[in-house]
Write a structure and sequence with these properties.
161 residues; alpha/beta; 4-stranded mixed β-sheet; two-stranded parallel sheet; 6 strands; globular; DNA-binding
Amino acid sequence: MEQDRLVRVPVDTHLGPFLAGFSATGLADLDFPGRHPDNFNRAKSHPLLASVKRCLKKILSGRQPEQFPEMDLSAGTPFQQSVWQEMLKIPMGQTLTYGEIAENLNNPGAVRAVGMACGANPIPVIIPCHRVLAAGGKIGGFSSGLEWKYQLLKIEGLAFL
DNA sequence: TAACATTCCGCGC
DNA sequence: GCGCGGAATGTTA
C-alpha cells in the first residue's frame, strides 16, 4: 500500500478520534471516527498536529478557523486540486452546488466531474466537501457516510428537512 | 471504456 | 408538485 508513507496520528474531538495522515509536505489525509484503516503507521505526535487539532476543533464547534494547517494535495489530479481549492474558499455556514463549483472553475459542463473530485477529497471537514449540495436544495452524496454530512451541516447551523 | 457525491427535460400521477 | 427514466456531460482509473 502506498499510503504507508503516511504517518498517522489520532486527533481527539468531542465527536470521537479522527485520524490524521501526514506526508513529508503536510496534512495529506483525514479519517472520520470509526472509519480508520486497519493497518497504518501510528505515531503519537507530529509537528503539525497542534495546528490540525486547532483547526478541526474550530470547525466542529461551528466556528471559522483563522488558518489552515499545511496540506499536501499532491495526491490529486490538477482538476481535483482546483476543486478542493475552490471548496476551501467556502466560508463557514455557506453552501454551494456542484454546478456552482463547476462554473467558478470556468468549466460549467464538468458538474459530474466535480462530484467525483468531492468524493476523492482526502481531507474531509477541513476541506469542506460537506458544504457542496446538489441543485434544487437536494443533499447530494457523501462517501464517508451521509450521516456525517448531515451532522456537519447541522453544526454549521444549516438545517435540512 | 465504464464508472460517477449531477443536471435537465418530459412524462404520469 | 413530486418521482422516475433517460440523455448529455467532463474527468478518472
